Amino acid sequence: MHRPKVTIVGAGNVGATAAHWIVSKELADVVLVDVAEGIPQGKALDLAEAGPVEGFDCRVTGTNDYAATENSDVVVITAGLPRKPGMSRDDLLKINAKIVTEVTQNVVKYSPQTILLIVSNPLDAMSHVALKVSKFPRERVIGMAGVLDSARFRTFVAEAAGVSVEDVYGFVYGGHGDTMVPMTRYCSIAGVPLEKFLPKEKIDQIVDRARNGGIEIVNLLKTGSAFYAPSASVVQMVEAILKDKKRILPCAVHLQGEYGFKDLYVGVLAKLGRNGMEKVIELDLNEVEKAALEKSAQSVRDLVKVLEG
To answer: Are 278 and 139 within 8 A, CB to CB?
Structure first.
């Protein structure tokens, strides 16, 4: 049987930890690519040497050369400068757009049939860049933000309600960051609506904390940003695709009319399987949710304008 191949571009904390999750689950062979010489090679070798201990049998390769990424089933793009305290997502915009453009060109050259998962920030705008540069159909360029934002939200709900995270179901719509839209009306604990467990004030506090989840960690670490939950989140998407699971997960998708948005990356629920993003799930939104989603979409539009201006 042909073992799947996943390329991860960017051997920083998110990329290297994603490689760790992927091989520990034996999902695929992994190629770790980075511009820094020695870093992807060293991390790949170190991870490979954990194989005999942990009992996983996947190949891990580190390289500075995109030729090694040939025929990847999925490519995860984490490359880009991380956000430093006091730096806005927009400061990063121009620098990271240039990086994502180059990465996408290199990746597509060697894996024209691959599926791209974008993790670089600002996420929605970088997905737009990758889509444009790759000229792929939207099904094969998906942004990872919703799974992470939902995981943060679910973590805080479980903590507040004193229940297992396994029983908390919830998801987040909209852009990654301050304008995200936690869909509290659709959230439940073991199928029971959230408001049966928590008062509205508490739910609002949790929503606010989820919105600022990334900043909370940046402020604690001071010299870096989150990587365990972001990498685990992208691996959940990788697994859904490689195993053709048809999972319904919140993803940044290039909408083409759904929810009234056209040619814009917006976080919504989508079905992920072997063909990438196989279907956008359209929910009925109330006026408050519609307004919040419109506000979120507008902030993505503004970023894209800055990029194309």
So the answer is: yes
